[in-house]
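On clarity, I found the account of how folds are encoded harder to follow than it need be. What matters is that the chain and its backbone geometry are given together, residue for residue. For the editor and my fellow referees, an illustration may be useful. For illustration, here is how one protein appears when written out as sequence plus structure tokens:

___
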Amino acid sequence: MNTENLRFGIDLGGTKIELIALEGSTVRVQRRVATPAHDYDAIIEAVAQLVEQAEAELGARGSIGVGMPGTLAQTTRTIKNSNTLCLNGRAFDRDLSARLARPVRLQNDANCFALSEAVDGAAAGAPCVFGVILGTGVGGGIVHEQHALLGRNGIAGEWGHNPLPWPRHDDAPASHCYCGRDGCIETYLSGPGLARDHAGHTGETLTSEQIAEQAAAGSVSASQTLERYCERAARALASVINLLDPDVIVLGGGVSQIEHLYHRIPELWPRYVFSDTVNTRLVRAAHGDSSGVRGAAWLWP
């Protein structure tokens, strides 16, 4: 094995920690363990053991990149905005680096997702990529020329915590977001947001997958819910196109599995984009729920 090309990626989530070992673009090892979510020291040890076990199996050392919800505060270089609360305020990359005796690179999980798809995924070769995670929350990451953009405050791409643009009467009432504000894009376009909208209009409690299935089967109410979702997504993504003008927008997360999104949203967004033509491509992630962990590995060139 060429150890110069061995990269370890870690996806540190609230419920699971995933490791991948890439040699070039080839997966050599991939495994997951549960996250000891309330014990900081146990998280460090769990990640370190995953790396050490993989290295023992492969007989080689590699670089280490980590993706997680949240980001590094620019002043203190400690974690902020993580939904795994015991990580906040901690120097995770430095502590893991000390434990494994090598440098560690860390970025937001949406940045890692976008990087993965830009390097060897659905947006491979595109100069500017906007990656969107539509799951329990809504995340975003920007990649230019295969480099994730962080921004001065470390929050580049945090699209989900802007207000839904061009509000309409059927967007009301705005839901409260965990960030403390009302009407964030995340409250509309996350999986729970889609389910909440359907329940509010019909009284039915369905998952986003069930809503899509019923819409495909001809349910009028489910089709109306899906149309509201696509219209809101078109407005929200049009604002990204107006600001960033990416070559490709890649969708990941559970809601991204709804096939209807990929033709309906581009049909709707031209009415909001400040251009006579819209050539931006909207595509589904090539690497599925492993895209984030692959992107963490790609944090090292």
